[in-house]
Amino acid sequence: MNFDPVPFPLLQSFLLWLLVVGSATCIVLVVSLIATIATVGARGPVVFANELGAMVGDLVSLSPRRIFALAQLTFREAVRRKALMVFVVFAILFMFAGWFLSSSNLAPEFQVKVYVSFVLRAISWLILPVVLLLACWGIPEDIRLRSMHTVVTKPARRLELVIGRMLGYSFVGLTVLAVMGVVGWGWINRQLPESAKSQLICRQPIRGELTFLDREGNPTKEGINVGDIWMFHSFIEGATKARAIWTFEGVGPHVLDNEGNLLLENRFQAFRSHKGDMRRSIYFQYTFVNPETNARVPYQLKTVDEGRGRTDRINRTLLNIGESSKTDGKKYDIIDDMVSKDGRLTVEVACVDPGQYLGMARPDLFVRTADLPFYYGYFKAVACIGLMVLLVIFMGVSVSTFVKGPVATFLTFCVVIVSYGARDFMGRIVGDPIALQKAAQYSGLQEMKKLEGGGVLESIYRILWHMNPTTELPAGPSTTIMQFIDTGLVNFLWLVYRILPNFDYFSESLLYVANGFDVRFDSCVLACIMVTLAYFGPCVLLGYFALRVRELEAK
Amino acid sequence: MSTTGQPREAVIEIRNLTKIYRDFWGRKKVRAVNALSLDVYKGEVFGLLGPNGSGKTTTLKMLLGLLFPTEGEIKILGQSASDVRKNERIGYLPEESYLYRFLTGEETLDFYGRLFNMTNAERKQRTEELLKLVKVDHARKRQLKEYSKGMTRRIGLAQALINHPDLVLLDEPTSGLDPLGSRDMKDLILDLKAQGKTIVMCSHLLADVQDVCDRIAILYGGELKVLGRVDELLKSQNQTQVLSDQLSPAAQAEVEAVLKKHGAKYQVDHPTANLEELFLRTVQESKDRPGRRLIADDPAVKA
Amino acid sequence: MNNLTSQQRKFVYLGAILLLLIPIIWLGMPADGTPNSGGMISRLRQELDLGESDLGDLDPSGAAMNLALLGLRGVAANILWMQADEQKNHKDWGELRVTTDSIIRLQPHYVKVWEYNGWNLAYNVSAEWDAVPDRYFWVKEGGKFLQRGVERNRRSPDLKWHVGRIYGPKIGLSDEARFFRRFFYQDPDPQYDKGPDPEFNNSSEDNYLVAKRWFQEANDAESKARQTIMDRSIFRSYPARSQLDYAAALYKFGFKEEYDREVGDRKLTDEEAKALEIRVREKLKEQTRQAWVLGLDDWTKRYGQELFSVEYLPGIIVQMRLEMAEDELRSLGKTPEGIAQLRRAVDQYQKMNNYRYWRTRALCESEPETAEAHWALFAASEEYRKQSPAARTFAEQSMALFEKTLEKYPELKDEDNFVEEALTAVLVWNLYLRLEGEKPPEMFPLKSLWDEKQAIVPEIERRFERDSRTNY
Ligand SMILES: Nc1ncnc2c1ncn2[C@@H]1O[C@H](COP(=O)(O)OP(=O)(O)OP(=O)(O)O)[C@@H](O)[C@H]1O
Ligand SMILES: [Mg+2]
User: What does the DSSP 8-state code read for residue A198?
Assistant: First the structure.
């Protein structure tokens, strides 16, 4: 796994959400109050209050029947306008995909990864444009053809209209997704080479916390870098006191397999500073430590299976082979003797070969509990795609209430693309700690600073006058003004950065299954649900607000 | 000048209504309605007349809250135009049938029924009734895109009536209908009136208007030019019409002699004074003397 | 059609679509590498020797792709390149492999793209793996990838040369050569049942001979189209070099390989083993010498006779061969000045290509005595490791033969390779004597060389020890 699955910070995210939504609402309210006063004069506040009251009234008098009528209308529209033609594209893609995927005779694990991510990506990239177009064109077309006139002159609230549209498109999107998901699942099962089918599983890992000891045996936060561009893995040196130490929680008899073995799975990397013995891979050794009693039992040497990962079945009864190969002949029970009362187990990993290095990151060693069937994780990932589809629909419908179809499509498309591609970069500009940390990890630095060189105006100035970023700008009012505007722009960017949805979680869901893991609820599914929910309310309100303050006349 | 004398309940009150269409940049483009004031009373059939582009549809849309007035106020069924709750009691037939073309006739009515929160049974029953009423029963299972213009109009009318509205706003109800259809439409309007409903209609077909309307308003260039009861408006102030049945030539000669004696100019023929004349005259006068005030019998307007 | 219902009509359309799909599949299915696989177009391409560039955009997969991407081929390719780079950094090898294929589907005409990606797979990705079989797998992937590139760009000499590089030096000269050469005919993947991977190696030839064929093809293509890799005079040396490398590899790895191949899964008695050892040695002695003879021929008669026009000094272009007879030199050089210049050019190019070294080495190695000396030394080392007295006899035999060669070709005294071998013979002999507790006599063959090169003896001893340890 190329990322570290950490639990979704629910409370923190919620507070941030409140902050952003709250401030955005305040801004909208203040701006519209001013606008009302500007248009109707002194009666402005009264009109404004009335409007606000009416909106609140609408909010509390929603009728499910009307909403469902509108949703059904939307669904019928999509179906009868042949939105389902997307299935044809889908079918064609899958008919021919076999030609191009089956060529390579990669290791089974890779095959699974390639097939599963192909299917899930194909599904998301096919379904996204469809729902994007549907959601962004529905309301504008309704207005253009004036068919909306017959709806809003009925007691249907404009709020219901927005919700009904969203609901309808969600039905469409989810139906299409469900069919594609099932077909994709069948396709994987049929097309995947026989040899790789055993790898179609959902591992359920118990992941621990990872700390290190350096070569002198002092605790450190990470090992050493052996020159990788990507700093995700850090390395420990062989035949020194360097150790990687995992502490797992929630270990008990229930994590053992049917035969009573503890399954430890690792994906260590090997790095050789000299050729060494080329006939075998590098040796490493587990040492089991009871975090309470500090009882230590070293385990037999194992070789790294680089690039593939290996599962070590550790018999419940451990024979102490001794720290320096002198066995005291004592036997230990891995659960009873090595796990603390609160269910913690520490596993130390050492590299054995002198001058060679063993690389790892937190997800690279885990206790593997009973596997789940593949469909379990697969459909969870499909569900996460579904949540992403909903998110796109919410945004699309909401945007389409105040701009026309093409503009709405373009705008939503940009939001999706920018969120996917440039959000991290924006995070670095505005100095978001999470984005900085991610960038630091990638670039191999301990810490990443906010991007230097000033804002837009300052950069342009520096480029035109050939100044490098360290040169002081000449003091004076123009510099002050320039920097003031730049600060404003960066603050605006901060808002945009905060408003753009974080699509990382949705793409991660796919990685879990592609790598043969169950999609974790707390760090992925929950996050997807929360992100989608977080946008639902604001999108509905924005759409409602826009429909209410505008004339529904085609112009 | 009110003929009845007693105060009547106003269903629609329009005061000083102005609508200016602006373009994207906020520049004024058209003054579609200008300082319009009028009332529509409960139980009457009110006709809005005027040449093309005189602001009839715009006025209706403002009544419905589809457009926001630039100035002025509207009270409709005692509520403001932007309040959706008024829609419970309103039926609206748009100028052209802006319906969902991918729905079938039946689905269309069912859909609008649901927007009124009607129960399943109510909707079924009402759908049956209306499909029969507007005579598109045979095409109920076909999508509207396959309907002819007249059929679409009929479905449009049906959807306007689905909620037993107290106030029906009809924008050119007879356009696109065959003679039989417009006959039916007129009957229907009179029928609704008989049920005590209020009807506001726009139309160019003056004969139709003359047939069904109690009162009319004529707009020209967004301004109200004529407002009043149809019968009174057609009654010319300094003309007297003598109507008679089976007047013998002898009797006619006698009457002529009397008129001659009093020195009056007269003309003897069959009565022809009609709305068309009034309409054309109003338009001509408005063209000749822009800004001239209207002929009206309405206290609201005079106030 | 008018009397069909709309539903029937839709079925007719569906049927028509399916009917149209049949020719598309028949025409367009890509080949999977084996001959006569794939659709009509790819078969025709194989038959008529057409590369992509000859067909233009007709490759259905490519055209479809372009269409699907609405002509945004360049943008898509860019994104894929970025993706590939990230996957490389993240060590997502499986996905990198697929991305590489997608890139190539978008840019099938760019020889450099094939080159870069093939190289990346065979060299960079392969080196990232710890287990040698895994490394070999990626070398193969690179090789197969490049061969697909050749199929689509038949006229490019560059790609063929790169394929040759993988079969030749990548397998034969890397640190893992010992394993790679073996895997070449005994793939570590159990699915090949101890045979070679037919997609990569479908002959029973040595990897260097396969490389030689590819280099030869590259040369043939080069006669019609320019190569862009290196100086032409070096580029064209590769077939001959491969033959020489083959001969050298036979000596270095041949015995173990041949012996193990002969033994297979059998269990041999000591006698049988001994007899086999001798048989294999005899066989290889001749085989190696023949390889050198052929190598000498390739080097001096083929490669050496090629006419190159080289820009000797800026603006001065001369016609020359690496092996130039005096009268030809005169006739081409014309003026005395020109002759002198040409002589200098030949000299320079000979140095640049290590021409003289390989000529001498091949010449000397094709002498029966040298071959004899080599194998005697080889046997001596083997026997010494077993601490058998035969070590001494073999060593002495080898020393005598080396001395004879040296008398014949005194210039070999300055060829490191020869010197090292000769000294190793003396070293083994010395070591064995030490083992027996004997003192070396005053006089012995190669004594003058031994004395003269004492400075490098410790280094040679270290190397010998290491080789004996790692010679598994
Ligand atoms: N959406 C609009 N944008 C700009 N101007 C408009 C718009 N709708 C109507 N108008 C203008 O407003 C004026 C009144 O139009 P309106 O549709 O109310 O006329 P009408 O009386 O209904 O005419 P008709 O008898 O042709 O239906 C016209 O000049 C028209 O061009
Ligand atoms: Mg109109």
Answer: G
Question: Is B57 part of a structural domain of the chain?
Answer: yes
The stretches of A364-518 forming alpha helices (DSSP H) are 374-400, 405-421, 423-430, 433-443, 456-464, 477-499, 504-514
Consecutive H or E run containing A213: strand A209-213
ipTM confidence score: 0.81
* Ligand 1 pocket test target in B57, B59, B66, B202 with most atoms within 8 Å of CB: B57
CA distance A271 to C127: 10
| Ligand 1 neighbourhood includes B104 CB (under 6 angstroms) | no
Write out pLDDT tens, residues C132-152: 999 999 999 999 999 989 988
Chain B nearest C-alpha distance from A157 (Å):
7
Q: Do chains B and C touch (3 or more CB pairs under 8 A)?
A: no
Pairing of strands C308-313, B295-296: unpaired
Chains A–B, number of C-beta pairs less than 8 Å apart:
83
Q: Distance between CA atoms of A266 and A271, rounded to whole angstroms?
A: 16
Which residues are placed with Cβ below 5 angstroms of ligand 2, an ion?
Answer: B 57, 95
Instruction: For residues A381 and A519, give the distance between their C-alpha atoms in angstroms, rounded to a whole number.
Output: 7
Q: Which fold has domain A205-368?
A: Jelly Rolls (2.60.120)
Q: How far is the CA of B61 from the centre of ligand 2 (A)?
A: 10
Q: Does the reported pTM lie above 0.95?
A: no
Instruction: Tell me the C-alpha distance between B74 and B80, whole Å.
Output: 6
Report yes or no on B27 lying in a domain.
yes
Average pLDDT, chain C: 84
Nearest CA to ligand 1 atom 12: B32
Q: What six digits make up the tokens of A149?
A: 């006139």
Q: Which residues are CB-neighbours of B51 under 8 A, at least 6 positions away?
A: B220, B283
Judged by a CB distance cut-off of 8 A, whether residue B102 touches chain A is yes
Cα–Cα distance list, C43 to C50, C198, C217, C230 (Å): 10, 20, 21, 33
Neighbours of chain B (3+ CB pairs under 8 A): A
* Ligand closest to CA B51: 1
- In whole angstroms, give the CA distance from residue C191 to residue C139: 18
How far are the Cα atoms of A81, A175, A309, C136 from residue C91, in angstroms, in the given order? 45, 36, 13, 17
Residue B39 lies in a domain: yes
Residue A214: CA count within 13 A, CB half-sphere: 8
- Is A209 touching ligand 1 by the criterion CB < 6 Å? no
End-to-end CA distance of chain A: 52
Q: Which amino acid is at A310?
A: R
**Domain boundaries of chain A, sorted by first residue:** 10-100+107-199+372-549, 205-368
Beta bridge partners of residue C137, listed in sequence order: none
Q: Taking 90 as the threshold, does the pLDDT of residue B2 lie above it?
A: no
Cβ–Cβ under 8 Å, residues B209 and B49: yes
Q: Is it the case that residue A221 has pLDDT exceeding 90?
A: no
Helix H or strand E segment including C464: helix C457-470
Beta carbons of A108 and A198 less than 8 angstroms apart: yes
**Beta-strand relationship, A243-248 and A209-213:** antiparallel
pLDDT at B210: 80
Q: CATH number for the domain including B145? A: 3.40.50.300
Tell me how many domains chain B contains. Answer: 1
Non-local (6+) Cβ contacts of A298 within 8 A are: A285, A286, A287, A288, A320, A321, A322, A323
Q: pLDDT tens digits for A277-315? A: 888 889 999 999 988 888 888 888 888 888 777 889 988
Residue B109 within a domain:
yes
Cβ–ligand 1 contact at B50 (below 6 Å): yes
Higher per-residue confidence, A93 vs A381: A381
Chain-chain contact of A155 with B115 (C-beta, under 8 angstroms): yes
